[in-house]
């Protein structure tokens, strides 16, 4: 009887590649399922507020957050299992070469023969993203209208949801297809050093998208209005000036039309920085804190008014503390460091792609015996062959992100915002129903932000000083 090692050695190179990809994919899934199981056990067993949380979290909020996170974890398990089975079936049944051949037939009927590989690639990409959107739609609907609705976060109607989904798909295609066609063209004509040109092209595209996103793309989905003149705006401008942050505009985005979750961010390059605040972050601006006007039925064509008898968001001093943390990322160079790491990784991946793209066994492993399309090569190498590297890199970036978050908190402390940031973190955790207890392995692997208790302890030390 042959041993497993002997059977493995007898397999052809392409079979070994294919089996390795499948085995690693399932190994990652089982690892993630193991971590999720540990965390779900925490949600199930931690039914009372721990003593160290007694001063910052009441039992009602604690129970709400526990049930919310338990529902999210259960949903994540089933959606993750479906995704893994779907991906496996696509590979085993030859879904990728099937879709490529179908794309060739469609482009052929339009008058583009096999020599028009870029056209066929764009048809393939359109069909693949359409398939992904359709198969993911039931999961998105359940997440939004069952889980988020059940726990009071969803603010969308069904009509708004579908309108938003269609708009996102169209905008994505308007960006994805031209960028992909240019990238494939550069790879085709770039010669031996095409990986350098491809990397430079993706660098330019990423910088352009970051620059135009909040001004031209995000407003297609949400309404952005300038923060009205007043005390908060003056305080924000003063703080920005004190740390030499080149602020030009401050916007409030109506995130409450979509969800009651809150956020804040800044964007822009060089001397043209803007700050964006979600209205759900601002106690004085959140639509969820406002009573419906007389004569309103609480619902319009696109969004539902779900005003709760509770205050949501932060006071001005707490908003400034949150912004102090966010601007700390800028002042400490975290944004630039992340861009540098991302581009170094991108260059490395394109270089390795250039080394591997000529290996016919990689294409044969996934059913491409006669042709080696560039787009398929990008998919095979970046998505499958690099998957072990991507997992390690993702973990390292998660560790680095937590370090950056502590540093940004420390920067806010130096601005004298420790007390306000402390209370803001508690409010935001309550508003978003974050569960403050986590399994240590799950937290280490997944959390890009430090656990709440660790952040509060660091800020508490500063408050006592």
Rg, Å, rounded: 25 Å
- Average the pLDDT over all residues and give the rounded result: 88
Shape: globular
Output the helix-strand order: HHHHHHHEHEEEHHHHHHHH
Gap between N and C termini? 72 Å
Strand content: under 5%
Structural class: mainly alpha
Tally of DSSP helical segments = 16
Instruction: Give start-end ranges of low-pLDDT stretches.
Output: 293-309
Please estimate the helix content: 55-70%
Number of strands: 4
Q: What composes the largest sheet?
A: 4 strands, mixed
- Largest sheet strand order: 1-2-4-3
Topology:
Elements: H1 4-10, H2 13-45, H3 59-92, H4 95-109, H5 117-150, H6 158-189, H7 194-217, E1 224-226, H8 231-242, E2 247-253, E3 264-267, E4 273-278, H9 316-331, H10 334-356, H11 360-364, H12 374-385, H13 387-414, H14 418-431, H15 440-446, H16 452-464
């Amino acid at each position: 009887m042959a041993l497993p090692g002997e059977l493995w050695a007898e397999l052809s190179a392409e079979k070994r590649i294919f089996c390795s990809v499948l085995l690693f994919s399932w190994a990652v899934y089982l690892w993630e399922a193991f971590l999720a199981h540990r965390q779900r056990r925490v949600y199930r067993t931690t039914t009372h507020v721990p003593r160290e949380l007694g001063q910052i979290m009441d039992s009602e909020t604690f129970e709400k957050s526990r049930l919310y996170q338990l529902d999210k974890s259960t949903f994540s398990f089933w959606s993750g299992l479906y995704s893994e089975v779907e991906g496996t079936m696509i590979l085993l049944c030859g879904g990728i070469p099937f879709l490529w051949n179908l794309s060739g037939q469609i482009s052929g009927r339009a008058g583009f023969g096999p020599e028009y590989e870029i056209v066929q690639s764009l048809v393939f990409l359109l069909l693949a993203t359409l398939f992904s959107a359709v198969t993911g739609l039931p999961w998105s609907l359940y997440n939004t209208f069952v889980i988020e609705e059940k726990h009071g976060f969803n603010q969308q109607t069904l009509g708004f949801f579908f309108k938003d989904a269609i708009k996102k798909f169209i905008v994505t295609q308007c960006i994805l297809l031209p960028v992909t066609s240019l990238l494939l063209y550069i790879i085709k004509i770039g010669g031996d050093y095409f990986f350098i040109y491809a990397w430079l092209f993706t660098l330019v595209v990423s910088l352009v998208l970051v620059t135009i996103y909040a001004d031209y793309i995000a407003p297609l989905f949400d309404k952005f209005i300038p923060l009205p003149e007043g005390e908060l705006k003056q305080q924000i401008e003063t703080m920005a000036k004190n740390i030499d942050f080149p602020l030009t505009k401050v916007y409030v985005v109506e995130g409450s039309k979509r969800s009651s979750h809150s956020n804040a961010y800044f964007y822009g390059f060089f001397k043209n920085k803007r700050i964006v605040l979600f209205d759900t972050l601002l106690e004085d601006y959140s639509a969820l804190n406002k009573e419906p006007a007389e004569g309103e039925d609480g619902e319009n064509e696109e969004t539902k008014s779900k005003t709760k008898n509770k205050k949501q968001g932060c006071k001005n001093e707490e908003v400034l503390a949150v912004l102090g943390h966010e601007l700390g990322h800028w002042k400490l160079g975290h944004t630039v460091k992340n861009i540098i790491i991302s581009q170094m990784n991108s260059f490395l991946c394109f270089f390795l792609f250039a080394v591997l793209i000529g290996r016919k066994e990689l294409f044969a492993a996934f059913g491409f015996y006669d042709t080696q399309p560039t787009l398929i090569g990008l998919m095979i190498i970046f998505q499958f062959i690099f998957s072990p590297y991507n997992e390690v890199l993702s973990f390292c970036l998660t560790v680095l992100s937590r370090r950056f978050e502590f540093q940004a908190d420390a920067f806010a402390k130096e601005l004298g915002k420790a007390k306000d940031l402390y209370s803001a973190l508690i409010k935001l955790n309550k508003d978003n129903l974050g569960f403050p207890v986590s399994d240590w392995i799950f937290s280490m692997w997944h959390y890009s932000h430090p656990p709440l208790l660790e952040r509060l302890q660091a800020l508490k030390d500063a408050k006592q000083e």
